[in-house]
Amino acid sequence: MGREVEGLTVRGGWFYYRGAQVGGVRPTRVALKTRDEEEAIRKIWVIRKNPVSAAAAVTGFAAAATRYLDHQKGLRRHTPKTTHVTAAVLKQFGDWAGNRRVGEITAEQVAEWQAYLGNQPGVRKGSKMASSSITSHLMRLKGFFRWAVEARMISQSPMEKTKLGKPKATRRNLWWDRDTREKMLALAAKEKNEKVQFILHVGFFAGLRPGEMLAMTPEWIDMRGGQLHVQEVRMNGTTVWRPKDKEVRTIPLHPRLKAFLKKYGMKRPWMLAQKRTKMPAAPAVRYDARAAFYRVVKMAGASGSLNTLRHSFASQLVLGGASLSEVAALLGNSLRVCEEHYAGLTARGRAVVLKLG
Hints:
Layout: E1 8-11, E2 14-17, E3 30-31, H1 37-49, H2 61-74, H3 80-96, H4 107-118, H5 131-150, H6 178-190, H7 194-204, H8 210-215, E4 221-222, E5 227-230, E6 233-235, E7 238-241, E8 249-252, H9 255-264, E9 275-276, E10 285-286, H10 290-299, H11 306-319, H12 324-331, H13 335-342, H14 347-354
Antiparallel strand pairs: 1-2, 2-3, 4-5, 5-8, 6-7, 9-10
């Protein structure tokens, strides 16, 4: 590196920054998300410029939350969608806590809020908030308190000992076979619901995540080259969506998906029409096709979720002879995750199971 900057390190060509120890707490290393040294130094300047005063500990939660969101936005760590959801979660906690001063919030109060979330209504009528949603809320709150420590508002996070265990998912049918796939596609066509048809095609033949289905734009589609590029979405010079792994992923365009997209058309700005939602902690706009999707699943005599489309895509690839590393690249997953889900479907995996007797 050309210039020595305290706390600036480089790993694998990417720059990171860790501030000085405060109150006996070592700040979290921040990924600056750049390979350019000058840009990294400018980002560190933004971090250090964040105002810290002796009265920081008495800052009201709402004011601190606003500063936190501005700070993350300045580092381009939050997309507009992430900012919207995080702001809604922090507002919900602040209202529940009576906008206490940041330094007055205790671990016991965080635990009480966690219990409060468990009694809140879920997405489906008559249900309670899912454990995965509760964990997501707590992770966003934990990120805020981590920043508050680094900003010297508090010396220790009240969530330092909060355990955010991964919720145990209730696994339904891991994947749908080809007969079920064809039945579902036929039912969606019969109902003339082109949005559900879109979801089924990009799920079965490209393995897109639900969030990727919503974020898909015509720029992802290369009809001439026969490829689908899952990539960052920018509008008016602003990043509004990023892939989960923040990398561009290229998927061969299946002939049936290509034929459907020609008929479906290139819809702008989003391939899947979006509408407003009243849910406070949801993105500002989205199309919720779950009701129509689950109706088709039920009519087909199947069980599963939107993610089952993705599992079906991967499972058919493995059964067709694709290696797990190839499947991992197409899904945008790590090899470890693919081994956990699909190793039993490989020829070697099946042979090992049969030898168990």
